[in-house]
Amino acid sequence: MKHYAIDQWADFTQGLLAEPEHTRLEAHLKGGCQECLLLWAFTTKLIATCTGLATDPVPESAVRLALAIFPVQVRLKRPKKLGSEPTSAKSRRSCKRASAKQMQGGEKLG
Ligand SMILES: [Zn+2]
Question: Of 17, 74, 87, 95, which cross-links 22 as Cys (Cβ 3.0–4.6 Å)?
């Protein structure tokens, strides 16, 4: 009997599997495989827990504390090389100041 891996059960639980894979896993469970039933039950609980964590808002004080413990590394994006226009030293300095302000403000950068 072919069993399915935990990542497949996680995808099944979240409804991420396309057909006919979804139907195959569902039939496998209905066939009574205890090994896969345990994995399915585990992924179901895991995903419910993770979903619950994701919907709970994180207190602002916890975010500030986390940022103090794990400082956000900000990397300045290098401007794309368009022709021969150099980036002036003045604009580089203003970029560094802007990113330092963003780090102090705890803003998340994309
Ligand atoms: Zn199985």
Answer: 17
